[in-house]
Design goal:
The complex is a heterotrimer. Chain A is an alpha+beta fold. Chain A is built from seven helices and nine strands; from the N terminus they run αβαββαββαββααβαβ. Chain A has a three-stranded mixed beta sheet with strand order 8-1-9. By secondary structure, chain B is an all-alpha fold. The chains are: A alpha+beta, B mainly alpha, C mainly alpha.
C-alpha cells in the first residue's frame, strides 16, 4: 500500500498508526525516563552552596524496599564503615555500627525479611529530648546529629533511642577520617552522610552502594523527588510507628 | 527535749583512724578505677552498646535515692512536727548530703567525658529530665545545707520549719525526677511507666531509713553512747512500713505488666527466664530485700535483737541494690521489638538478651562512692555536734 | 628561726620561684617552629592565613568555635575558619617529607600548644592531617597516600577562593 494513499480509510489507518507510534514511542520514552530518572535527578538537584544555611525547606530521608534487600548482603554496612572509618576494634559488643542488617522472621508464618536499620532521623527524636546538654540535636533539614563538642558521654540518648541506633565510643581512636570526626567518650550515630548531603552528592554511602536498589535517598519535602513519588505509589511505614516519631527513614515490604 | 545535749564524737582512737583508713583505701581504689576508665575508655568495663548503664549507675542511683530518703527522719521532725524525731534530725540531714555526694561522684566519674562537667552545668536542654536532675541535685546541696544550718545555729533556728519544708518538697521533686529518668523513656518495655517516679520515692524512704538506722546504731555503739530501745523500735517499725510499701509498688508494677500481653516477654524474662536477673529479683529484691527484713521487724523474738535489726537493715540495702540491678540491667538486656510479631537477628544484638558481666573497675568505682559517703558522715560527726549525748529511753521518750 | 617561720619561708620561696619560672617560660615563648630564615616550618601552603597572625594567635579558638557551630548546626561549609581547611594549609610535610602527627611537637598545632601549655581537645576526634592523606576507596588501605585529588576524596577544596 502506498504511504501516500489519500483514501479516507487509509487516512484513518495512518492516523491510527501515527497514534500507535506516538503511544509506543511515548511509553518507551517514559520507561527510559523513569529508568534514567535517578541519575538525571541527581545531576539536576541544585546543590546547596557552601555558605547557605540548611532550612526546613528540605527534609532528607531514606526509603528502604525490604523486598529488594538481598539475603546475606552487607554492601551498605561495608560502604558506611568505609565512608566513616569505622573499624573492628574490641568486638561486636563495643564496636560502632551505624547501620546494621536485621533479619526479621515472623514467628507464626515463617516469613523472613531483611532490612538495614540505622538512625531513623525522627521528626520527634527521643534522643534529642533527653540529652541534658543539647548535644543531640535535629538540624533544620531533618538530620539528627550529635554535637560531639558538648557531648558529655552520659549515654542517656542511647537509653532513649527506640531503634538502638546510637553507639558509644569505648576506646581511644586514632586516624579518624576528616569527614567523620569521632572520639572516645562521646556518642555517635548515622549522620545520613551529612557531609555528602551538604556537598550536593544527592545520595548517602549506603544508598549509593546498594546494588539491588533497596535504599533510596531523597528529599521528603519535595513532592517531585523520586523518594516522594515512590512513597506516594507504594507507601512506606515507620518502624515502631506507634511511638509517633515520624521517622525520616521509611520501609516498604514489611 | 530541752535537756538534749549534742556533742561531737571524739574521733581520736586508733579504731576511728583505722575506719577512716578503710574508707580511704576504697576511695583510692575508686579513684584508680576512674583514672583507668577515663584513660582507656569504657571498653575495659562490662558496659557495651547494648547494656549501656551498668554497675556504677546501680550504685549511683542507689546512693542518690537513699540520700533523698535519709532526709525523711529530719522531715518528720521539722515538717510534721513530731518531737520524738527532733534529736535525730541533724544526723539525718548530714547523712542525706553525704549519700548524695557519694552517688553523684560515681555518676559523674563514669561519664564518657568527665572533663566536660562545666559543659554539663552551663549548657541546658530543659526538655531533658537529666538536665532538671542536675539542677535538682545541686540545689539539694544548697537547700539541705541551709536546713542543716538552721538546725546547728541557734540564731537561725526559727527558720527551721520553713527550711525543712522546702527541703522536703525539693527532695520529693528530686526523687520524682530520678524515677522519671526511666519513666520518661518510651523506648524500652521495662521503663515508660508512670509508676517509676512514685516507686522511686517509696524506695527512697526504705533505703534511706535502713542506712540511717545502721549509721545511728554504729555511731552510738562505737562511741559508747547509749541508744535506747524506744528510738530503735520506732525507726525499725517505720522501716517495716516502708519495706512493705516498696513491695506493694513493685507488685503493682509487675502485676500491671503481666496483664498486658505486650509486656509478657519482659516479665517472663525478669520473673523466670533471666538467669542472673531472675535470681537478683527473687532472691535479692524479694526474699532478702523484703520478706526476711519484714519477718525480722515484725516477729516478736528477732525484732528485739539489735543484731537482727542491723541484719535487717543490711538486707534492705542489699535488696535495694538488687532491685536497681534488675531495673537497670534487666531493662536494658531485654531486646526492643522493631516490628511486632517478628523476631529479629542482626550483628548488633537485635532480638537477643544482651549479656552483662560487671568488671572490677565498675565495682571499685561504686565502692569508692559508698566510701565517700561514709567518710563524709563519719567526719561530720567529728567536726559538728550532730549526735545527742544519749538517746536512752529516759531522754528520748520521757513520758513512757 | 623556729619551725613555723621556716616552713613559711620555704613556702614563700617555692611560690616565688614558681611564678618567676612561669613568667620566664611565658615571655620566652616564641610560637611555632621556624627555620633559619624565620619562616614557619613546616611551611604552610598559600601566601597568607585568612586573618593576620596576631589576630589568629589570640582568637583562633573563638573563630573555630563559632565556625564549628555554623557548620554543624546550619551546614555552612565555607572554607574560612574551617578546621579542615586550617589543617589542609598548615599541616604540611616537614624536611623529612613526612607529615607530623598531633603527638609530635613538629605538628603545627602541637608546636604552639606545647609551648603555651594549653590542652588541645580537637584531635581526640578530628583528623590531624590534610584530606589528601586519606583515601576512601573501598578495599584499599584507608591511609594510603593519595596525593591526587579524586572524586572519592572529600569535598573540601584547596583553592583559596575567599569566603
Amino acid at each position: 500500500m502506498s504511504p501516500k494513499n489519500t483514501k479516507p480509510e487509509m487516512n484513518e489507518t495512518n492516523k491510527i498508526d501515527q497514534y500507535r507510534r506516538k503511544l509506543l514511542g511515548g511509553s518507551a520514552a517514559a520507561v527510559a525516563g523513569l529508568t534514567l530518572a535517578p541519575g538525571l535527578i541527581l545531576n539536576t538537584v541544585q546543590a546547596k552552596s557552601a555558605d547557605q544555611a540548611v532550612s526546613n525547606k528540605n527534609r532528607w530521608g531514606l526509603l528502604i524496599d525490604t523486598k529488594r534487600c538481598a539475603d546475606g548482603c552487607t554492601d551498605c554496612v561495608t560502604a558506611c564503615n568505609t565512608e566513616h572509618g569505622l573499624r573492628e576494634i574490641h568486638g561486636p559488643a563495643t564496636d560502632a555500627q551505624w547501620i546494621r542488617n536485621v533479619t526479621l522472621k515472623n514467628k507464626s508464618t515463617g516469613h523472613t525479611v531483611n532490612m538495614p536499620v540505622m538512625c531513623q532521623h525522627c521528626e520527634n527524636p527521643p534522643c534529642v529530648d533527653v540529652c541534658p546538654t543539647g548535644a543531640s540535636f535535629k538540624r533544620d533539614d531533618g538530620i539528627v546529629l550529635v554535637d560531639k563538642h558538648i557531648c558529655i558521654g552520659c549515654r542517656y540518648c542511647m537509653m532513649a533511642c527506640p531503634y538502638k541506633a546510637r553507639n558509644f565510643i569505648h576506646e581511644v581512636l586514632t586516624d579518624q577520617l576528616p569527614v567523620a570526626p569521632r572520639g572516645k567518650g562521646t556518642v555517635e550515630s548515622c549522620t545520613l552522610c551529612v557531609h555528602k548531603v551538604d556537598n550536593g552528592d544527592g545520595t548517602t554511602a549506603c544508598a549509593d552502594a546498594c546494588k539491588h536498589g533497596a535504599i533510596t535517598f531523597g528529599d521528603l519535602n519535595d513532592k517531585n523527588s523520586l523518594i516522594s513519588k515512590k512513597l506516594e505509589i507504594s507507601g512506606g511505614r515507620e518502624l515502631r510507628a506507634e511511638l509517633g516519631l515520624n521517622t525520616g527513614v521509611r520501609y516498604q515490604g514489611l | 527535749m530541752k535537756n538534749i545535749r549534742y556533742t561531737s564524737i571524739e574521733g581520736n582512737s586508733v579504731k576511728f583512724l583505722a575506719l577512716l583508713g578503710v574508707y580511704g583505701f576504697f576511695i583510692l581504689l575508686g579513684f584508680y578505677a576512674f583514672i583507668t576508665m577515663e584513660h582507656e575508655g569504657h571498653w575495659i568495663t562490662g558496659m557495651t552498646n547494648q547494656v549501656i548503664w551498668g554497675l556504677p549507675h546501680v550504685f549511683a542511683i542507689f546512693l542518690i535515692v537513699a540520700a533523698s530518703g535519709a532526709l525523711n527522719v529530719a522531715s518528720i521532725a521539722s515538717v510534721f512536727n513530731k518531737s520524738f524525731y527532733k534529736p535525730l534530725a541533724k544526723l539525718s540531714a548530714v547523712l542525706s548530703l553525704a549519700l548524695l555526694a557519694g552517688g553523684l561522684a560515681v555518676l559523674l566519674l563514669d561519664l564518657g567525658r568527665p572533663d566536660r562537667l562545666i559543659v554539663a552545668i552551663t549548657y541546658y536542654n530543659f526538655k531533658s529530665i537529666f538536665a532538671w536532675n542536675i539542677i535538682l541535685y545541686t540545689g539539694f546541696f544548697g537547700i539541705v545545707g541551709i536546713y542543716l544550718w538552721t538546725m546547728l545555729d541557734w540564731q537561725v533556728e526559727k527558720y527551721k520549719r520553713i527550711a525543712g519544708t522546702a527541703a522536703f518538697i525539693w527532695r520529693l521533686i528530686l526523687t520524682t525526677g530520678t524515677g522519671s529518668i526511666f519513666g520518661f523513656l518510651v523506648s524500652r518495655q521495662a521503663y515508660d511507666a508512670a509508676i517509676m517516679a512514685p516507686m522511686f520515692i517509696i524506695m527512697s524512704f526504705s533505703f534511706g531509713l535502713a542506712i540511717y538506722l545502721l549509721v545511728l546504731m554504729a555511731g552510738y555503739k562505737w562511741t559508747g553512747r547509749e541508744l535506747g530501745d524506744a528510738v530503735i523500735n520506732k525507726l525499725k517499725n517505720l522501716m517495716g512500713v516502708f519495706i512493705a510499701a516498696t513491695l506493694y509498688f513493685s507488685m503493682a508494677y509487675h502485676l500491671t505488666n503481666l496483664y498486658a500481653t505486650e509486656h509478657h516477654g519482659i516479665e517472663a524474662f525478669v520473673l523466670m527466664e533471666g538467669g542472673v536477673i531472675t535470681n537478683m529479683f527473687w532472691y535479692g529484691q524479694i526474699i532478702l530485700g523484703a520478706i526476711i527484713p519484714l519477718l525480722i521487724v515484725y516477729c516478736p523474738r528477732p525484732s528485739k535483737s539489735r543484731t537482727m535489726i542491723s541484719i535487717a537493715s543490711i538486707l534492705v540495702i542489699l535488696g535495694g541494690l538488687a532491685s536497681l540491678y534488675v531495673i537497670l540491667i534487666g531493662g536494658q538486656s531485654y531486646p526492643m521489638t522493631l516490628v511486632p510479631g517478628y523476631e529479629a537477628t542482626s550483628t548488633f544484638a537485635d532480638g537477643v538478651i544482651s549479656e552483662y558481666s560487671p568488671s572490677i573497675w565498675e565495682f571499685m568505682l561504686g565502692m569508692g562512692g559508698v566510701a565517700i559517703s561514709l567518710v563524709i558522715v563519719t567526719f561530720a560527726m567529728k567536726i559538728f555536734r550532730l549526735l545527742p549525748d544519749s538517746l536512752s529511753d529516759s531522754i528520748a521518750a520521757p513520758q513512757k | 628561726m623556729n619551725g613555723r617561720q621556716l616552713s613559711k619561708l620555704l613556702l614563700t620561696s617555692a611560690l616565688l620561684l614558681w611564678s618567676i619560672g612561669s613568667f620566664a617560660a611565658g615571655i620566652s615563648y616564641s610560637g611555632p617552629n621556624r627555620d633559619a630564615g624565620g619562616n614557619i616550618v613546616p611551611t604552610p601552603k598559600g601566601e597568607k592565613c585568612v586573618a593576620p597572625i596576631a589576630d589568629m594567635r589570640a582568637n583562633h579558638m573563638d573563630y573555630l568555635k563559632h565556625k564549628r557551630n555554623e557548620t554543624m548546626r546550619q551546614g555552612i561549609r565555607t572554607e574560612k575558619n574551617s578546621l579542615v581547611e586550617c589543617i589542609n594549609c598548615h599541616v604540611t610535610p616537614g624536611e623529612d617529607g613526612k607529615v607530623a602527627r598531633i603527638n609530635d611537637e613538629k605538628h603545627f598545632c602541637a608546636s604552639c600548644h606545647r609551648s603555651a601549655s594549653v590542652t588541645l581537645d580537637c584531635f581526640e576526634c578530628h583528623a590531624d592531617r590534610p584530606v589528601e592523606y586519606f583515601s576512601r576507596l573501598p578495599g584499599k588501605d584507608v591511609f594510603a597516600l593519595n596525593p591526587a585529588l579524586s572524586s572519592n576524596t572529600p569535598h573540601v577544596v584547596l583553592n583559596r577562593k575567599g569566603e
